[in-house]
Amino acid sequence: MDEPRPALILGSTSPYRRELLERLRQPFSVIRPDVDETPADGEAPDALAMRLALAKARAAAATARTQHADAIVIGSDQVADLDGQPLGKPGTHERATQQLQQMRGRTVRFHTAVSVLRPSTGFERTLMATVTARFRPLQDEEIARYLAAEQPYDCAGSAKAEALGITLLEAIESDDPTALIGLPLIRTCALLREAGLPLP
């Protein structure tokens, strides 16, 4: 007799991560992780992404513990990296404009970390996918048109590459293509299998 499948929980309220996880055709629930995303002094962007992904997974797992004793929990975080400095979600039109002006003609690395936990077995692992994106030498008018159309104020570095943001770029390099959208599915699948969830 097959063992019951563990509950799958996404520790994120990001609609982009939710849409990506739906591609795996596994039922899952969503828990908002209560995590302070403020970088520590001098914290490198990739270290920040790794720390926050794990913190989000742990926070969601703690919330889910009473209802789902054998849950597998996913946490993820993305940090844009310009010359070693983290670029977060802009939040406002003015900040998004500043970010894109900083990035024009430059290469930006997007670090997307994913953590998978299964507290009942002690499984806990985090992997990183880094996407290198080369931005075109954008004109102010192009930035203004893009922001008016896309309003990517909840996206790290203001770059919503799965939509109109692709027009801002000259090239993208990655071995896990969905990482730029917010969840590296190749690495996520590897971790889910390790945690005991058969895929496909």
Automatic annotation (TrEMBL):
SUPFAM superfamilies: ITPase-like (SSF52972)
UniProt-listed Pfam families: Maf
Name of the top EC class for this enzyme: hydrolase
InterPro entries listed in its UniProt record: ITPase-like_fam, Maf-like
Catalytic activity: N(7)-methyl-GTP + H2O = N(7)-methyl-GMP + diphosphate + H(+)
Active site residues according to the UniProt entry: 77
EC code: 3.6.1.-
The protein's required cofactors: a divalent metal cation
UniProt keyword Ribosomal protein present: no
Entry's localization field: Cytoplasm
Main localisation: cytoplasm
This protein's UniProt keywords: Cytoplasm, Hydrolase, Nucleotide metabolism
Transmembrane segments: none
Top-level division of the source organism's lineage: Bacteria
Site (Important for substrate specificity): residue numbering on this chain: 16, 78, 162
Function: Nucleoside triphosphate pyrophosphatase that hydrolyzes 7-methyl-GTP (m(7)GTP). May have a dual role in cell division arrest and in preventing the incorporation of modified nucleotides into cellular nucleic acids.
PANTHER family: 7-METHYL-GTP PYROPHOSPHATASE, BIFUNCTIONAL DTTP/UTP PYROPHOSPHATASE/METHYLTRANSFERASE PROTEIN-RELATED
Protein family according to the UniProt entry: Belongs to the Maf family. YceF subfamily.
Protein name: 7-methyl-GTP pyrophosphatase
Species per Swiss-Prot/TrEMBL record: Aquincola tertiaricarbonis
High-level lineage: Bacteria, Pseudomonadati, Pseudomonadota, Betaproteobacteria, Burkholderiales
